[in-house]
Design a protein that fits this description.
single chain; 3 domains; four-stranded antiparallel sheet; alpha+beta
Length: about 325
């Protein structure tokens, strides 16, 4: 059997082929008729074929799409993604009172020098607060612990201790778990209060920034559509992102690279890039509204010139088309 190392082109080719097979398998599975799926793919992949489609073919295509959507909706209702996670969530014993979680059962097992202690809890928080509660509880249990002991909290609300050494005193574990279950309630409340205060402050700042923009909106380049601060802080790769955003009119969206590179050359701007599916720009650091206006004005002439050239070219193309059409009609005496 030959074993060869693929180069980059070979890998990309296989990746595309596998992707097409996966796409076809899903499409055929939900189409009900493989022949209809192949016909639909062929006719929609060829612009010339779409241009000469008959009314019957159009109705056939609509029937295929409608049937596919109905089967997709049915599939989503019956399919359970990440069954292990869903099963653990179903096992949670959610609290019915405001008290801390309580121990309901304990199991001890072990093999090959690893001791495993499982502690089932009841009265755990509901879905809205569970993740914060679980992460905080795990941190409290692992705080100042020896490397030979590792605590975790599962999605079902179970405490799991794995230790590579013998645990002599059960009372030590009981005290640590009991204290952590009490402390986690205070920590979660403190974090929620801090988060709420932070959200309120971000929202108030966003509203204030919006008002500042409205006050000088007329001084911004006319190709700038809107400027705003997001009312929340995004974290990407552990790094907080700037909240300063702006969008441009349709006429300027084709020049996003020119806008980004031009603003990055402005002394007070560190980065500017497209962010999100709506084509908005994110500017870092967060600038005063007047400084951002000056930065956009510094690149505005180049953008306006390109927009004007683009408009002129489209007008010239349209005039050429109309002139040719009129000349052909005249030559063929169709007027």
């Amino acid at each position: 059997m030959r074993q060869e190392i693929l180069d980059v082109k070979g890998f990309e080719y296989l990746k595309r082929e596998i992707s097409e097979v996966n796409e076809a398998s899903v499409g055929i599975a939900l189409s009900g008729d493989p022949g209809e799926y192949v016909w639909f793919r062929d006719i929609t992949a060829n612009p010339d074929a779409v241009g000469v489609a008959t009314l019957d073919e159009a109705q056939r295509a609509l029937g295929f799409v409608f049937g596919w959507i109905v089967r997709w909706e049915s599939f989503q209702d019956s399919y359970i993604p990440d069954r292990m996670y869903q099963r653990q969530v179903e096992q949670r014993r959610v609290r019915v009172s405001s008290g801390p979680a309580r121990v309901n059962a304990v199991r001890v097992s072990g093999e090959e020098g690893i001791l495993r202690v499982e502690v089932d809890l009841v009265d755990v928080p509901d879905n809205d607060d569970f993740n914060v509660w679980r992460d905080t509880l795990s941190h409290l249990l692992n705080d100042d612990q020896r490397l030979s002991m590792w605590w975790s909290v599962t999605e079902s609300g179970r405490i799991v201790l794995q230790a590579t050494q013998r645990i002599e005193v059960a009372a030590e574990l009981v005290e640590r778990i009991s204290l952590a279950l009490i402390r986690v309630e205070d920590e979660v409340m403190r974090k929620q209060s801090a988060d709420e205060a932070s959200r309120s402050a971000l929202q108030a700042e966003a509203v204030s920034y919006g008002r500042s923009y409205e006050a000088i909106e007329s001084t911004f380049p006319n190709w700038v559509e809107n400027v705003w601060l997001t009312d929340h802080l995004e974290i990407v790769g552990g790094v907080p992102q700037s909240r300063l955003m702006f969008s441009v009119a349709d006429s300027a969206r084709g020049y996003s690279q020119v806008i980004s590179s031009g603003l990055r050359g402005y002394p007070q701007i560190e980065s500017c890039f497209l962010s999100g599916s709506e084509g908005s720009f994110r500017v870092s650091p967060q600038l005063d509204i007047e400084v951002l206006c000056s930065a956009l004005q510094s690149v505005s002439k180049d953008i306006e010139d390109m927009i004007a050239r683009d408009v002129q070219e489209r007008r010239a193309e349209e005039e050429t088309r109309r002139s040719l059409e009129a000349e052909l009609k005249e030559k063929f005496r169709l007027q």
